Amino acid sequence: MNKALTHKVEETVERAKLWLKQYPKPAVLWSGGKDSTALLHLLKFRAGADLPVVQWREPKFRERYRYSDKLIDQWNLEVYDYPPMHVALADGPDVETGQMRFDLLKFQQWGDKCIVLSLGTERPIGGEKFLCGVDFLARPTGTFRWPWNAVFIGTKRCDTDLIKGHVPIQMDIRHHEGSPVSLYLLHDWSDADVFEYLETSGVKPDEDRYEINDVGEWVHKKDKSKNADYIPTCLNCVDRHNSGPAWCPKLKATVSSMAHLAPYEDVVVPELGFRPIWKKEVAE
C-alpha cells in the first residue's frame, strides 16, 4: 500500500471509530461491490466493528451473489434482507451510448421512511434467464422494523451512474428526519484507492464484476452477465417510449402495451447529486 493510501486508511479508521462512538447502533449497507466490500472490511478488520449488514438481493438471481456468500462464510457476517415497500421504474439516456436505459427502483424501508435502491437492467440476450418487468412490478412488498440508528454506506464522491452521470455527494454525514444517519466513510476515496486497498488487504474483488485490463489495473467488466448490479430484464410491454404492441418472450406472443399503467419515478435528491437531467428528453 502506497504512503498516501496508508495515510488515508489511517484517517478513515480514526473517523470510523469516532462515528462508532457517536452512533452506537449502526449497520452496514453492502451490495457485494468493491466499494461496500472495502468499507465492510475496513470497519470489521481495521476499526474492530463487527456490525450487522443489510444486503438486498434479487430473488430470481441468487446465483449472482456467490462472491457475497463466500465472504459471509469467511467473515462470519450477520446479513439481513427484506422486501421493498414498493417498486417503480426509472429511465434515461445512457451517458456512454445515448441509448435509453432502464433502472428497477426498490423503495426499501429506511427508519420511518425509505431509501431508493436503483438496480440496473440489461436487455436479455438469446435464451438467457431474464426478469419479466411485469413480474417485478407485481412482486411481494412489505415493511420492516428498522432497529439501527445509523448506516455506513460505500458511496464515494467520484461515483458515476449510467443514467445520471456523475453524482457527487456533498457531505460525509447526512441527517434526514425519520431516517437513520447516513455515514459515507469512503466519500473522499477514488476507485484506484478502493482496488489497491482490497488487493493489499488480501481481498480479491468480485471477478464476476471486475477484471484486470491490459495495463494491470482493475476495471469494471463490460460483460455484465453475472453482475448482481445489472439484471437482464424484459420491459417491452411497459416501455413508455413504445406505445404500440410489444413482443413478450415469456408468453412468446405479441401483447398490448401496458406502459400507461407502469409507475415511473424520477429520483431527485439534490444533496446527493441526483437531479432529473434526463427529464426534458423523456417529456419530449
Give an account of the 3D structure.
The chain has 6 helices and 17 strands. It has 284 residues and is an alpha/beta fold. The C terminus is likely disordered. Helix 2 crosses helix 5. The radius of gyration is 19 Å and the shape is globular. A 6-stranded mixed sheet has the order 3-2-1-8-12-11, with helices on one face. The chain has one domain: Rossmann fold (3-Layer(aba) Sandwich). It starts with a helix and ends with a helix.
When the domains are counted, the total is: 1
How many individual helices? 6
Poorly predicted tracts of residues: 277-284
DSSP strand count: 17
User: Could you say what the CATH architecture is?
Assistant: 3-Layer(aba) Sandwich
Portion in helices: 10-25%
Largest sheet: 6 strands, mixed
Q: Compute the separation of the termini in Å.
A: 50 Å
- Provide the CATH top-level class: Alpha Beta
Q: What share of the residues does DSSP label as strand, in percent?
A: 15-25%
Element-level helix/strand string: HEHEHEEEEEHEEEEEHEEEEEH
Strand order of the largest sheet: 3-2-1-8-12-11
Multimeric state: single chain
Mean pLDDT: 91
How would you classify the helix and strand content by structural class? alpha/beta
CATH topology: Rossmann fold
Coarse shape: globular
Q: In a nutshell, what does this entry contain?
A:
By secondary structure, the chain is of the alpha/beta class.
